[in-house]
Amino acid sequence: MKLLFICTHNRCRSILAEAITNHIGANKISAASAGSSPQGAVHPLSLKYLQEHDISTDGLKSQSWDEFEGFEPDAILTLCDSAAQEACPVWFDTAVQVHWGLEDPSKDGGGTAQQRDSFNATIGVLQRRVKRLLQADLQNLSGVQLRQELVDIAAQVH
Length: 158
Known about the structure:
Largest sheet: 4 strands, parallel
Strand content: 5-15%
Number of domains: 1
Structural class: alpha/beta
CATH superfamily: Response regulator
């Protein structure tokens, strides 16, 4: 199964989701991330907190969804509200699209401890959601069933 995580700037939440999914997914799920208006650089705290969780940051980069025309994901998961409102490029039309909205931990300007807690909370939610997805019979889910599974996960796993 292939997942594409989308955030407008592709520098924090979608990067976290890509790394966590590839770490936990272990040959069952392949993930990538992109943005409609990528910043061009991964947020340094995304890298820091992934590394603190022993999750590889190799190859992570902020990139446009235009670079994924041939990727053919089974599902596209938007993580920020603004990306959820955007129309995905036509080459993603066959993919299931679901919103897994998460607060942006990089926006927590309350200081180092609060930012650490925000990043760790976001990482925790993503880990729980991916683990829950791995409990499903991924090879036998039709598009409609996959969409419902992803919607249920978003609603139930926080």
